[in-house]
Amino acid sequence: MENQYIMKGGVPLKGEVTISGMKNSALGIIAAAIMTDETVTIDNLPNVRDINVLLDAIKGIGATVVRVDDHKVRINGSTISDVAIDYDAIRRIRASYYLLGALLGKYKEASVALPGGCDIGSRPIDQHLKGFRALGATATVEYGMVNTYADELTGSHIYLDVVSVGATINIMLAACMANGRTVIENAAKEPHIVDVANFLNSMGASIKGAGTDKIRINGVSRLHATEYSIVPDMIEAGTFMIAAAATKGDVIIKNVIPKHLEATSVKLIEIGAKVEEFDDAVRVYSSSRLGHTQIKTLPYPGFPTDMQPQMSMLLSLSEGTSTVTESIFENRFKYVDELSRMGAKIKVEGNVAIIEGVPGFTGAAITAPDLRAGAALVVAGLVADGITIVDSIKYIERGYEAFEDKLKALGAKIEKLAVDDERGVQKFKMMA
Ligand code: EPZ
User: Fold this and answer.
1) What is the pTM of this model?
2) Active-site annotation holds for 118
3) How far is the CA of 124 from the centre of ligand 1 (A)?
4) Reduced to 3 DSSP states, what percent helix, strand and coil does the chain have, rounded to the nearest 5?
C-alpha cells in the first residue's frame, strides 16, 4: 500500500536531530563487502529502502547477510554462487551498478540489470564501461543487462571524460583486485568516494589519493575481514539545515562532519541564516526572512546537485530574485510545478531556474517526483499555511531514514498515512 505524508505548516522546527549514515557511501560499501570471502561488519548503516534492496540483491546471488540490528549488518561473500543479477528490484536502484565493479574485481565476470534509480536525467554509464575496458575487460549492454568479463584484469591509466561519482567508485572496486597499478584521473572527490576507499583499504586494498582528482590503486590478490562505520549523510544533514532555516527554527544537527556541509553552510550564511559549527554537529537558526543568491551545482566541493531542490525551495521563500543553475542532471527541476501549486514563483529556462521570492506558501496536494525533490516538498509543506499532502513518498523513503519521526521530534506536525486512509486525513485535520 502506498503511503503519503500529511502536514500542517507553520511550526518553527526546534531541538536536536541525529543524522544517519550516508546512503550513497553505504551502497558502494555493501558492494565492496562481497569482494572478500571473510566476514565484514558494517555499522552506521542507514535503514532506508535503497540499502535494503541492495542487501536483498547480494543475498539473491548467495552472499550471507546477517542483520545484527537496524544499523549494523554482517556480510560474507564466500557463499556467492552466481555473478548474474537480474531482478526487477535491482533495476529500481541506481547503485546496482556497483555490483559490476565488485563482481568483476573478485570473479572477473559480472552481469547486472541496467541501473534505474531516480529519473533526474539521462544518466549514462559509458565512463564506468570505459574504465572496465581499460582494465582489460569486455563490457557490453544487451537485453537490458550489462555484461563484463576478463581473463585477467590489468592496472591502467584512466582519464574520466566527466567527473562521475559512480564511475570513480566502480573503477576503484574493479581495480583494487587487478594486477598492477591503476591511476584514475579527473576522479570525483565526494566524501563517499573517500569512505568507500577507506573501507576497501581497511580490507587490505591499497588506494591512495581518494578525495583528490587523482586516485592511485595498487592491485592486491585478496581482501580480508574488517569492521567499519559509515560516515554521516551530508545530504540528509543539509536537508535538516534547510528545514531549520525555512521554518525559522533553531535546530542542532548531530552526528555530522561539518566540513562536508560547507557548500550548504556558506550559502545559508550568505542569505542571512545563522550557522554554528561544532566538532560533530551544526546548529542552524534564523528568525527573519532570508535573502537571495546565485547557485550553481557542481561536483564536490561545489554545491551538491542533491541539495538543489531543497535550496531552491528555500530561495522561493526568500526576498528578491535568485538564480539556480543545475549543471549535473538535466531533469532536476521536476518539482517546480508542484512548488508553484503552493505559490512559488519559479521560471525554468534550460538548466536555470529563476526564482522570485514569495512571502509564504499555501498548502496543497502534491506529488514527490524523486528523492531530494520529495524531501524539499515536505519541507515546503512544513512552512506552508494550512494542510499539505505529499504522495509518492516511496521516493523519499529510498534515502531518508524515519524522516517523519525525525521531523516530529523537532515539533513538526506531520503524519504518514496510507493513501486511502480518509479517516486518518480527517482526524489529522481536526487535531492539527
Ligand atoms: C551519484 O549518482 C549519486 N548516486 C546521486 O545521488 C548524485 O546525485 C550524483 O552522484 C551526483 O553527486 C549514488 O551515489 C548512488 P554521477 P551517479 O555519475 O553516480 C554524467 C541521490 O539523490 N555521467 O556522478 O549516477 C551524468 O549524466 C542521488 O542520492 C556520464 O556522462 O552520478 C551526470 O551528468 C541521485 N557518464 C554526471 O556525469 C557516466 O558514465 C554526474 O553523474 C556517468 C555519469
Assistant:
1) 0.97
2) yes
3) 9
4) 35, 30, 35
